[in-house]
Design brief:
The complex is a heterodimer. Chain A is mainly beta. Helices cover 0% and strands 51% of the residues of chain A. Chain B is built from no helices and eleven strands. The chains are: A mainly beta, B mainly beta.
């Protein structure tokens, strides 16, 4: 089945550690996105990538980094510089080109900083 | 600056009643307005979407009403059921300008009680 796989589903991190969240899609979508979800805050864009080897900062990129070496993969690293990393992280993708409509989401990864 | 304002933050509706969620946007260049539904612990999924050249779109019990002059759109859920209990997000983007990232509202938590 085509879709987006995020792993791990749950992750615990000690303060000061970097962690990487995986996002893999087999939909052949060109564009991929990372959103952060906090209660009452909606979905806030962290980074997005429209093509391989290129990505842009979203609204809350500070303390995060990404790479897009393959079309299928868009990992997100939460660095120690992110002051409040505990959140639900959602990866999404969409077909390329103008007029593409449906943003498909993964099931999310919940990160908790101890 | 919040580009898409969503209200109410939470909503309780009796089974069989009508659920109404409202959104307002600021950017007149937006030309695509989807609604996403999210169940606890899952990623959001597209529910219904509208473009500004129509004033209403209906899919089953779900209807989007769109008022371009007021820069507002709303989701109506007719005959609300307990299974509709979820968080709903409105969003907006500029599809005609390429895949600009969706801007989301802060979400509405809907509870349908029997």
């Amino acid at each position: 089945d085509g879709g987006i796989t995020q792993s791990p589903k749950y992750l615990f991190r000690k303060e000061g550690q970097n962690v990487t969240l995986s996002c893999e899609q087999n939909l052949n979508h060109d564009a991929m996105y990372w959103y952060r979800q906090d209660p009452g805050q909606g979905l806030r864009l962290i980074y997005y990538s429209q093509i391989v080897n290129d990505f842009q900062k979203g609204d809350i990129a500070e303390g995060y980094s990404v790479s897009r070496e393959k079309k299928e993969s868009f990992p997100l690293t939460v660095t120690s510089a992110q002051k409040n990393p505990t959140a639900f992280y959602l990866c999404a993708s969409i077909p390329g080109g103008r007029g593409a409509n449906v943003l498909t989401f993964g099931a999310g990864s919940r990160l908790t900083v101890l | 600056q919040q580009q898409v304002k969503q209200s109410p933050q939470s909503l309780i509706v009796q089974k069989g009643g009508i659920s109404i969620i409202n959104c307002a946007y600021e950017n007149t260049a937006f030309d695509y307005f989807p609604w996403y539904q999210q169940f606890p612990g899952k990623g959001p999924a597209l529910l219904i979407a509208i473009r500004p050249d129509v004033s209403e779109k209906k899919e089953g019990r779900f209807t989007i009403s769109f008022n371009k002059s007021a820069k507002q759109f709303s989701l109506h859920i007719m005959d609300s059921q307990p299974g509709d209990s979820a968080t709903y997000f409105c969003a907006a983007s500029m599809r005609s300008s390429g895949n600009t990232p969706l801007v989301f509202g802060k979400g509405t938590r809907l509870s349908v009680i029997a």
